[in-house]
Amino acid sequence: MPITRTDVEKIAELARLELTAEETESFTIQLASILNHIDKLNELDTSNVEPMSHCSTATGDIDYARRDDRARPSLGQSIAVENAPDQESGFFKVPKVIGG
Amino acid sequence: MELRDFTIKSLRQKIEAREVKAVDVCRAALARAERLSDLNAFITLVRDRALGQAAEIDLAADVGRTLPPLAGAIIAVKDNMVIRSVRTTAGSRILFNYKPPYTATVIERLEAAGAIIIGKTNCDEFAMGSSNENSAYGPVKNPWDTKRVPGGSSGGSAVAVSTGMALVALGSDTGGSIRQPASLTGVVGFKPTYGRVSRYGLIAFGSSLDQIGPFANSVEDVALVLSIIGGHDPNDSTSSDAPMDDYLAATKRDVRGLRVGVPRQYYGAGLDAEVRASVESAINKLEELGAVIVEVSLPHTEYAVPVYYLIATAEASSNLARFDGVRYGFRAEEVESLKSMYSRTREQGFGGEVKLRIMLGTYALSAGYYDAYYGKAQKVRSLIEQDFRDAFESCDVIATPTSPTPAFRLGEKTSDPLEMYLSDIYTITANLAGAPGVSLPCGFSSAGLPIGLQLIARRFDEATLIRAASNIEQALGLDTKPPVISQA
Fold this sequence. Notes:
The structure holds 2 protein chains of 2 kinds. Chain A contains 3 helices and 2 strands. Chain A is mainly alpha-helical. Chain A has a domain at 5-43: Orthogonal Bundle (Histone, subunit A). In chain A, strand 1 and strand 2 (91-92) form a beta hairpin. Chain A is flat. The model of chain A has no long low-confidence stretch (mean pLDDT 89). Chain B is of the alpha/beta class. Chain B has one domain: Amidase signature (AS) domain (Amidase signature (AS) enzymes, Alpha-Beta Complex). In chain B, 38% of the residues lie in helices and 13% in strands. Chain B has 16 helices and 11 strands. In chain B, helix 9 packs across helix 16, helix 10 (304-319) packs across helix 12 and helix 10 (304-319) crosses helix 13. The longest helix of chain B is centred in the last third of the chain and has 21 residues, at 371-391. Chains A and B meet through helix 1 and helix 2 of A and helix 10, helix 11, helix 12, helix 13 and helix 14 of B.
C-alpha cells in the first residue's frame, strides 16, 4: 500500500519534525517513489538468511569491546554546557514541559 | 610556491634541510584557498592556529631536531570531524555555531605527527549527498569546470587537494563520499575497511557504514596518512585491533600474479562509454604489468541501492535525534512547549535532504514496518557481503568504475532524489560489505573531466589496494593538475 499523507504526518511526529504543508506534500511523493524502488528487495527469498547487523572483526568472531568499570576523567559540567543555547548553573535550560 | 609539486615526504625533507619554511608553505596554501574561494571548498579557515603549528615545525627544524613523519603537511578536514574550539558545522545550519569540546582521534594523531590543519571543508549536510549541493553553506564547484559538481559528500576536501589548497585532506565515506568526489576531481580517495580507522570525533551518519579516509594527489601520500590515522582506538568500540600492514612498503611491490576481478554487474547499462573505455584501459595496464584478469560476479549488486537507503537512513534517523536544540547548536525561538522546540528547531535547522532521509529511516524502523524494511535490508546486506567473500575466492582485488559518469552539472540531479541515489551504485557495496576501496584517476573524458578507477579488496587488506593503485598510478603517469591553478 503506497505511503499516504497521514503516514507522513505520523512519521514527522515520531521524528520530531514540524513539516510545512508543502514539505508534507513533496515528501509523500518522494517517499512513495523511493519506497517503490525499495520494493525490489522482495524479489529475494531471504527466509534462510541471517541479518547482518554490523561488520564483524578481522578474525570473524564477534567480540564486544569491553573495559573495566572504572571512572575516568570526563568533560566536566562547565565544558559540557559551553555550547548550550540557554544554560544556568551548569544545567541546560529548556521551555517548561507542559502536559504529556 | 606550488603545493601540488610537493609530496608529504619531499616537503618534510625540504623543511628539515631548511630549504623551505613550513610557515611559507602554510601561507601559500591559505593564499590559494583565498584566491580560489569561489569554489567554496572551505567553511572555516584557521589561519592563526595553522601558522602557529607551522612556526613550531620551523623551530624544530632550526634547532636540528628530527621532524615527525608528517611535518609541515598541510591538511584540510571535512567539517563533520571535530576539533576542540574550532567551529564545526557538518554542513548544517543546526550546528552553525558549534565549538566542539573535544578533538577527533584521527586529528590528534595527525597533529602529533606534525601535520598542519588549515581548515574545515565544505560538505553535504551531515554527509548526506553525492554532489555537495546539500550544504547549508552553498555548493562546492568542480575546479575542472565550475558549472559542475565536485561530487559528495566530501566535495570540499576533494577540491582542496585537487587545487593545492592542501597536501592531504580527510573525508568520510558512508556510501562513496570519499571515492566518488575523488573520481570527479581527479585525486586519490581512500575508504579504509570498516573498523580500520577510529570514528571517535566523526559526527555519525550511518554508524555501521561510516569510515574516515584520506584524499591526496598520490597513492604514497594516502598510504602515509593511513599509517598514521589507522589502528585501534579505545574510544571507538567499533575500531579493530587487527594489525596494520606496512602501507608505504606496499607502494613498492609489483603486481605480478595479482588476480584482478572484473564484475560484469558494474559494466552494464548506465555506464558512460568514455568511463568504460578509460577504466578498461587502466585494467589492461595492470595485465601488462603481470596481473591476471578474471571475470567475477557480484550478483546482488542491483539490490545495493535499496539496501543502503534503508540501513543508512535508519541509522541516520537515530544518530540525528540528538540535534534537538537542547545542548548545542541552533534552537528555535518563540516556542510554546519543549516538544515544539524540538520539532521547530529540527524543521528550521535541517535541510531538505536530511529531513527526507530522517523520514525514510524513521518509517523503516517504525512499528509494523521494521521487519519488512530494516530487517529485510539487513538480510540482503548479508547476501551482498557474501557476494564479496565468494568473489575473493578467485581474485585478490576487484576493479570497477567509481562513478557511472564524469562530473555532472550543478542542479542536474537535484529534482529527483532517486536519480542522485542511483549514481552511487558502484561505491555503495563496499560500505555494505565493510570492505576497503580506493578511487584513483585513470583518465579524462573528451570534455577534459577526470575519470576514476575503483579498486576494492578484502577486509583489512588495504595493502593490496595500495599495491595495485601505486602500479597503475606509475604506469599511467597522468597530469592531474586542474588548469585553474596556473591561472592568475
